[in-house]
Structures are given as structure tokens and as C-alpha cells.
Specification:
elongated; 3 domains; Multidrug efflux transporter AcrB TolC docking domain, DN and DC subdomains; Alpha-Beta Plaits; disordered C terminus; four-stranded antiparallel beta sheet; alpha+beta; single chain
Length: 474
């Protein structure tokens, strides 16, 4: 019994098989990640090194050239481009296409470990970053309100940024715009020179005073208490009263009544010991509560605002993450103070949904046109509807094996599962799944089309009206 005879004699079984295929295809379609751009691994690494308050010439000679010489022996390296600016060094290493960037990044890090001792002591460790031109935020929020910019940014960081970063699939949320609070310590150079205290001692004194230290534990019979000393600043006045050093005061200055005595043995010994006088920070510096220098400006519709750019994780689905963010924003709007407005000004999922809708509409239009063309040429409603229904069934066969491919991708020897990209999907240009699974076709069915829109020229139906079982597919 061949396949056509089996299908004719057992119609219920055939219908159940095709129903299962359609059901698996629909489930796979819903689980398929849908992105705006394909996952491209660009063969470029960027090494960023910071050295605060250093001139570009020092950055080039002490950091950039050393890094260039060290990574020049990495395999598959094509070219090196560097930029030396005030306080920062950027070295871009471009590799050949097809290079495994994970191993390339590992090789670059190994070379950098060998030259860390040659870099300046105050310079930060080099950071290796992968370059992805399509690594764009999936959503951008605009926060406005009738309040000072500093308070608005504080509310954004406290209520919005922290809550969004807790959402599953969100990698980070970057806040730009507004102004940030800053405690400024302005040191008087003349007073500092007169006290004889180095400037680094002042910096270390402030840093060490603003720390909470663990102080051990107290054990009882059934209880153990953890003790810690609270040293973090809560008010600006606490910073002014920090002790940054001391100076010894001679006994003649402390006891003028003994200053005319020429024989020190007549003076009590405890009075001749020098006394250390503490020098407070407020004696040589002025502490003020101010704001940081503005490095980023954000405006929306001509008004200053706070922008929040949201990045998703690499394996997360854009549509699912966007829906979760929108649901969380409804809860956040209930908790933030009144007068603060949160608006979505960019949503990548909107473009994806529009592309999917365009593809769906084009598929429906193509299916209707295919049915009409078949009806005109075949002049048989039943045959035309069967051939037309075979088109979406063929598409579902394409999507059905995807869950199995996802499970097989756990094995290192198999390629990872693909995703649907809609960057070029416009009405009339259907998206494609790469790679395409093989689709088996019987003689009496329509050809196996992997595209959504039908192409009548691919059918290869011979001339004349023949029974459905006598068709041939080229």
C-alpha cells in the first residue's frame, strides 16, 4: 500500500496526522524567538583602559602602545586601531571573518595579563568588550515631572531603574539626563601646606571614615549577635569633623607661665610632654553639598527629561521582555509620587509586531490569490481548496521540527537553534527560517513551499484536467 492509497483508505488517520503537524507547527511558531535583527557575531574586540587626569600623550605612550604590542601576536588578527584621549585608551582589534570570538577574547585577555605590571599603578585594568552593531536598547522610557532634575533622577533610580532590572530577561537599564548629587571638598592649598599634611592622607582619611566595619560577634547560650561599627556619612557636618592628622604642641605654648623658666627640671614632667592636637577637615577645606558636572543632556519634545534605555539579555525574547516591562510599568506608576509621568518613546517590539502583521496579511492575500488562480485554471472548487490548504500545512511542517532542534542544540556538536529575524520582512517579502528543514511531499499533494507566499510557477502541473492522484510535481 503506497502513500496515496493509505491516505484515501484511512482518511481519519490522515486528518489526525496533518492536524498533529499543524498543532506542532503552531506551538513552535509561538515559541520561536522573533527579533528585529539577526544574531551576528562581528569579528571585533574593543579594549578600554582608563587613567584619570592623564594627558593623551601619556595615555598613548604608557598604555595604548603597550596594549598594541601585546595583542599583535593573537591569531587571526587583521588590524588594530587605537584612540588615545584624555583619561581613556580605546584599542579596537579586528579579526578575520569566521574567527571564534570567544577564543579570540580569551587570547586577548591572556596577553593583557602579561602586561598589567607595565601599566601605571593608578590606571584601571583593561576591559575587553565584544562589538555588536545591532546591540540596541529594546525600549526607551521618558520620565518627566514638575520637580527639580536632581529629585526626578533620584526617583527614577529608586523606583524605576531598580524595578525594571529585576524583570526576567532584562540585562540592564541605563539612566541618562538630569543632575546627580555630589559632596564637594575644596581644599585650601595654603592651609594644607601650613599643616604639613600630604594631600593623599586627606583623601585616605575621608575614604576610611566612610566605611562600615564588622566588629565581631557576641555569643550567648542560644543566640549569636553580629556587631558592626557604623561609619558611613549621613550628614555633611559629619564630613567636616573628620580628623585628617595631628600636630604636636610644645609645652611652652600650652603653659606660658613656665616659658621664662630656664631650668626644665623645675617643671613637672607630665607638663613637659608634647600634646597632639587633632586637625579637622573643616580647618583646611570647605565641604559643600552640590551637584556633579553635567555630562549628558536628555530632552523629549523640547523639554528636559530623564531617559532610561533598557537592554535585554542575549537569549531573551524581545516580545516577551517588552510585554513584561509594560506590565511592570503599570505597577510602578502606582508607587511613584504624583506628578511623575512615564512614557514609552521607543519600543522595538512594535516594529517586530508590525513586520509580523505585514507578513501575515501578505500570506493571506497570497493564499486567496493562489486559490483564485487555481480555481480559474482547474475549474474545480474541491481540488483548488485542497491545493490551497496544502500551503499553510507545508509551512507548519517547517516549524514543527524546531523544538527538536532546540533540544539537539544542547549537544556541542550540533548548531544552535535559529530564530526568526524580521529586519527585511515587509508586505510581499516573507521572512525565512535558516536553516530550512527538509519537507517530504507526496505525488498527489502540492509542492513543498518553504516561503509563505505561493509561487504558481513552482507547481509544475501538466496541462489538461486530470484527477488529483495523477498530478506530477517537478
Amino acid at each position: 500500500m503506497n502513500l496515496p492509497q493509505f491516505s484515501v483508505r484511512r482518511p481519519v488517520t490522515t486528518i489526525m496526522i496533518f492536524s498533529a503537524i499543524v498543532l506542532l507547527g503552531v506551538i513552535s511558531w509561538n515559541r520561536l524567538p522573533q527579533e528585529l535583527f539577526p544574531p551576528i557575531t562581528y569579528p571585533q574586540l574593543t579594549i578600554v583602559s582608563t587613567y584619570e587626569n592623564a594627558a593623551p600623550e601619556e595615555i598613548e605612550t604608557q598604555i595604548t602602545r603597550i596594549i598594541e604590542e601585546s595583542i599583535g601576536t593573537v591569531s587571526n588578527l587583521r588590524s588594530i586601531t587605537s584612540i588615545s584621549k584624555e583619561g581613556i585608551s580605546i584599542v579596537m582589534a579586528e579579526f578575520l571573518w569566521g574567527t571564534n570570538m570567544d577564543f579570540a577574547a580569551l587570547g586577548v585577555r591572556e596577553k593583557l595579563d602579561l602586561i598589567k605590571e607595565r601599566l601605571p599603578i593608578d590606571a584601571e585594568e583593561p576591559i575587553v568588550k565584544k562589538f555588536n552593531p545591532f546591540d540596541l536598547p529594546i525600549m526607551t522610557l521618558s520620565i518627566t515631572g514638575n520637580m527639580p532634575p536632581a529629585k526626578l533622577r533620584l526617583i527614577t533610580e529608586k523606583y524605576i531603574e531598580d524595578e525594571i532590572e529585576k524583570i526576567e530577561g532584562v540585562a540592564s537599564a541605563e539612566v541618562t539626563g538630569g543632575i546627580e548629587r555630589e559632596i564637594l571638598v575644596e581644599i585650601d592649598q595654603d592651609k594644607l601646606r601650613a599643616s604639613g599634611i600630604p594631600i593623599m592622607d586627606v583623601v585616605n582619611a575621608i575614604r576610611n571614615a566612610n566605611i562600615n566595619y564588622p566588629a565581631g560577634t557576641i555569643k550567648e547560650v542560644f543566640t549569636e549577635y553580629l556587631i558592626r561599627t557604623i561609619g558611613e556619612f549621613k550628614e555633611v557636618s559629619e564630613i567636616e569633623n573628620i580628623s585628617i592628622g595631628g600636630e604636636e604642641e610644645e609645652w611652652r605654648h600650652r603653659f606660658p607661665q613656665y616659658s621664662r623658666i630656664e631650668e626644665p627640671q623645675l617643671i613637672p614632667e607630665e607638663k613637659m610632654r608634647p600634646e597632639v592636637k587633632l586637625i579637622l577637615l573643616k580647618e583646611i577645606a570647605t565641604v559643600s553639598d552640590t551637584f556633579k558636572e553635567v555630562t549628558s543632556i536628555s530632552r523629549y519634545n523640547g523639554m528636559e527629561n530623564i531617559s532610561v534605555s533598557i537592554q535585554k539579555q542575549a537569549v531573551a525574547n524581545t516580545l516577551n521582555v517588552a510585554n513584561k516591562i509594560k506590565s511592570q510599568l503599570k505597577q510602578i506608576e502606582k508607587e511613584i509620587p504624583k506628578g511623575v509621568d512615564v512614557e514609552i518613546i521607543y519600543d522595538q517590539s512594535t516594529f517586530i509586531k508590525n513586520s509580523i502583521n505585514g507578513v501575515r496579511n501578505a500570506a493571506l492575500e497570497g493564499g486567496v490569490l493562489a486559490f483564485l488562480v487555481l480555481l480559474v485554471f482547474l475549474r474545480n472548487f474541491r481540488s483548488s481548496i485542497i491545493v490551497t490548504l496544502s500551503i499553510p500545512i507545508s509551512i507548519m511542517v517547517t516549524f514543527a521540527p524546531i523544538p527538536a532542534a532546540t533540544v539537539a542544540a544542547l549537544v556541542p556538536t550540533t548548531p544552535p537553534p535559529r530564530i526568526m529575524t524580521l529586519a527585511g520582512a515587509t508586505p510581499g517579502t516573507p521572512p525565512k527560517i535558516i536553516p530550512r528543514p527538509f519537507i517530504g511531499c507526496s505525488r498527489y499533494l502540492a509542492p513543498c513551499w518553504t516561503d509563505i507566499l505561493p509561487a504558481i510557477s513552482l507547481m509544475g502541473v501538466s496541462r489538461g484536467r486530470r484527477p488529483l492522484g495523477s498530478w506530477r510535481v517537478s
